[in-house]
Specification:
alpha+beta, Immunoglobulin-like, four-stranded antiparallel sheet, 9 helices, about 55% helix, elongated
């Protein structure tokens, strides 16, 4: 099952999504007091609040960067409007979609329902929201693997696996004391963790930034709705100070796992060329790789300090030939349609001619500079 082209991405997706089952057995706890249940419920809420902050902040930062680029370069607001529209649509669909789903299929009068039934419905909605979020995580794993960053893909899988273990706890917390069956817990785990596996499979052969943005926004909207439901349940349980303590614990546990992943990525990031060109880094912001496809055509790949590809459509870039000359020749790069690389045409000059690359950072007009000598010609086949 895990052999062939998609074998390893599927296996990594299985690792990342499978750990969500580790936190589910807590739902089998019986004879649990109201305060303990409120405490567990609050921990679940804290985890989801951190996820909402993390996802929304990531998306808003990308849209803000597009707006800043449009203002400073006059490139137009098409990209910002497109991504902003996807964010609004996905977030609204995630939030209002669960409202409609509950009214249409679960009915109203949530406080009058049997506590066990209400707990199961809430757990399933949490699983749906986490499943959408985990689908985007699977996409990240698959895309990293398909881009050649195998070690990074493994690292992402391990990090997401640690994080998903806490998410499984988030699903189980509302069920504690209600004797949920193993079959129901298996279904909830599959709904929440299965999309990681699916996302890894899709991401390994199809890369789409708009789909990634939409899925993350959809997840953020569903998580916001679920947080409201969990806070409502917490008020019913009247846990007093124990609720706030649980919120803090859940939030900081989720934050600690996220920081651990970031630290591990920093320590194990692999730096080097992927396309057969000249490689360098600048200002701890960018990794550059310059490929010369013909006498006068150059291709530039720009990655972050983890060596993960950046979207070239939101970068400000230009080059200077013979930068020490009193009258140097200058030009600009053009992004590929999918934003995976930048291209430009330069005069037919020898490989001994230095070329100075200047790339604008995503935020605040920060610039990174790198100087190369034009590399020998290399075919696009070789560069892949």
């Amino acid at each position: 099952m895990f052999t062939g082209l998609f074998g390893k991405p599927l296996f990594l997706g299985l690792i990342a999504g499978g750990t969500i089952f580790l936190g589910l057995p807590i739902a089998r706890l019986s004879r649990i007091s109201a305060k303990t249940k409120a405490f567990l419920n609050a921990i679940s809420t804290g985890i989801l609040i951190f996820l909402l902050v993390e996802i929304s902040g990531h998306l808003i930062e990308q849209i803000e960067s597009l707006v800043e680029t449009a203002v400073t370069t006059g490139a137009g607001f098409a990209g910002a409007l497109r991504y902003g529209g996807l964010f609004v649509f996905g977030f609204s669909l995630g939030l209002l979609g669960l409202v409609f789903f509950e009214q249409r299929f679960l009915g109203s009068g949530k406080d009058e329902k049997a506590p066990g039934k209400r707990a199961k419905q809430l757990a399933l909605m949490i699983a749906v929201g986490l499943g959408l979020h985990n689908f985007s995580e699977g996409l990240a794993i698959g895309q990293g693997y398909s881009a050649g960053a195998v070690q990074l893909a493994w690292l992402l899988a391990i990090g997401f696996a640690l994080h998903n273990a806490t998410e499984g706890f988030g699903i189980a917390a509302p069920l504690s004391g209600h004797k949920a069956s193993w079959g129901f817990l298996g279904l909830a785990g599959l709904v929440a963790g299965g999309p990681t596996f699916l996302g890894a499979a899709i991401g390994s052969w199809w890369v789409s930034k708009p789909i990634e943005i939409f899925c993350l926004a959809l997840a953020a909207g569903t998580i916001l709705y679920i947080i409201g439901e969990l806070l409502h349940l917490g008020r019913v349980l009247k846990g007093e100070a124990v609720v706030e303590i649980g919120l803090l614990i859940g939030f900081f546990v989720a934050m600690a796992t996220d920081f651990s992943v970031s630290a591990a990525m920093e320590l194990t990031a692999v730096h080097g060329p992927r396309h057969g060109g000249y490689f360098g880094d600048a200002n701890d912001i960018y990794h550059y790789e310059l490929v010369r496809e013909s006498d006068n055509r150059i291709v530039l790949y720009v990655n972050d300090h983890y060596n993960r590809p950046l979207d070239a459509r939101i970068l400000q870039t230009h080059w200077i030939l013979n930068p020490d000359d009193p009258k140097p020749i200058t030009g600009f790069f053009t992004s590929s349609p999918d934003g995976s690389f930048l291209t430009s045409t330069v005069p037919n000059v020898s490989p001994s001619t230095p070329v100075h690359i200047k790339v604008g950072a995503l935020k605040k007009g920060d610039w990174a500079d790198m100087e190369f000598y034009l590399p020998p010609k290399i075919s696009r086949t070789q560069s892949q």
